[in-house]
Design goal:
The chain has 352 residues and is an alpha/beta fold. It is 39% helix and 18% strand. It folds into 2 domains: 2-195, NAD(P)-binding Rossmann-like Domain (Rossmann fold, 3-Layer(aba) Sandwich); 200-347, N-(1-d-carboxylethyl)-l-norvaline Dehydrogenase, domain 2, CATH 1.10.1040.10. It is built from 14 helices and 12 strands.
Length: 352
Amino acid sequence: MKTVIMGSGNGAIALAAWQSYCKHDVTICALPDYDEHFPDFKDSKTLKMKGELEGVICLNEVTNNVKCVEDAKAVFIVVPSFAHENIFQKILPYLKNNQTIVVFPGNFASVTFRKMLESYNSDLTLNFVETDSLPFACRYEGNAVINIMGIKKCLSAGTYIYNKRDDKTSGEEVEIITALSPCKVSFVENIIATGLQNPNGVVHPITTMLNTGRIENENGAFCFYSEGMSVSIAKVIDKIDAERMSVSKALGYNLKSVIKWANDAYGYNFETLYSFLQNSISHNKMKGPFSLSNRYLQEDIPYSVIPWICLAEKVGVKTPMLKLTVDLASALLETDLHARENQFRELNLNEW
């Protein structure tokens, strides 16, 4: 199958390598300002895999030209959530009817994409798939080497079909994501449920902020999950997760707790998140961020936590811990992280 991976970070490179390994025709594309890794393999078009997968694969193309999406059966957007809108704006003029757009992870991207399509008065029918997470624990190590430290056992996904105005799949996008993902994909009710299932907004922000001293004084020279996590921090995470679960239940979704999600994704059976993160091989060697200006705060709060708070308001669920997370991050970063609130306050849940 012919695919295009939009992105040049850890997840995008890992996904491109895996799909190429599975004999798909893969192009990896990034905007010129975000292709810092491309010089390592742009000429050779080869990547070396290590970890869970080993070998050398050859990509079909490595490019900055977004026109490459024209002939793709599926386009995968694998970038931080704050880049979704920019990427979609660039590729939109070249998309074709009935193409499938997969966002790893989605974080409610289809809400933004639909508004953009409506503003363009687009008559395209596009199939959107949003997942709750990346399928890999991975790091790009430079020199065309991608280290795939873990491959999840399962992911959740939701769909949205623009111009059909319902949340039922036509079947083709289900087949595409099943064929092009390295793990089992379970479909939930819609992209709202998928956005609520993503665990990053529960785990990353508060763990980051409660390790501010280590991050600023040690420049990330500690293991984020095994050394940055403690029994007390895990208790705070459980309270945040309880609020997320309450919102999900009030909306009629039967979603997983963070520890249930983690155990299912990585094939473990730990009773607590603290035990999981101390013992998960895929997590316990990952280093911390170099500063507070990182995606754990700048992505996970505006694109996960803020939408959860807005959804909670719609169904009358109180979320003091989630709001505390936003307020504390705003104070630490000296910026207002409430930018997406209006978009979600206007959201009509019946349309999804």
